[in-house]
Amino acid sequence: MSVHSCVFCKIIQGELPSSIVHENEHVIAFLDINPINPGHVLIVPKQHYGSLKEVPTETAMQLFKVVLDVEKAVWVADGVRCEGTNLLQNNGKSAWQDVFHVHFHVIPRYKGDNFKIKIEAGKPSREELDTMASHIRDSI
Ligand code: 5GP
Ligand code: ZN
């Protein structure tokens, strides 16, 4: 996806409306148009990067600082029911990324809400875990 057709770039340029909760030189945070729960915020770097692995470390730190500020805010903001939060960050179609401009979700949660993730976790042996750990260690 090019910068020109990117929906978040259009929001950043002011070409599409958004409900902004925070903005600085590098980062913008606005409400998700289809919130999982009320107060669901997206935190987005103003520079276009497709996914997390493309983001320079310094930008990622600026981004995460705003994620932390927003996460604290939703616990206490009027009108937000927040008994917990999920931070969600999707990369790639297989991982549910729909908008290919990197972003974090801050999602307020409460008991009995409608957010469901079905998990069927594996049960690898210690040997399999150790082998996998060494593969990833070698890739860092
Ligand atoms: P992803 O699946 O890529 O992690 O999440 C993309 C998110 O962007 C979705 O939750 C979706 O509701 C939100 N979204 C898509 N288009 C717009 C838009 O035009 N404005 C806003 N505020 N959110 C959007
Ligand atoms: Zn973009």
Largest sheet geometry? 5 strands, antiparallel
Extended strand count: 5
CATH superfamily: HIT-like
Number of domains: 1
Q: What fraction, in percent, of the residue positions are helical?
A: 25-40%
- Widest sheet: strand ordering: 1-2-3-5-4
Give a written overview of the molecule.
With 140 residues, this protein is α+β, with helices and mostly antiparallel strands. The chain has 3 helices and 5 strands, in the order H-E-E-E-H-E-E-H. It has helices at 7-12, 57-76, 126-139; strands at 20-23, 27-31, 41-45, 84-88, 104-109. A 5-stranded antiparallel beta sheet has the order 1-2-3-5-4, with helices on one face. A hairpin with a 3-residue loop joins strand 1 (20-23) and strand 2. The structure holds guanosine-5'-monophosphate and zinc ion. Guanosine-5'-monophosphate binds at residues 7, 16, 18, 30-34, 42, 90, 96-99.
Secondary structure layout plus pairing:
Elements: H1 7-12, E1 20-23, E2 27-31, E3 41-45, H2 57-76, E4 84-88, E5 104-109, H3 126-139
Antiparallel strand pairs: 1-2, 2-3, 3-5, 4-5
The structure holds guanosine-5'-monophosphate and zinc ion.
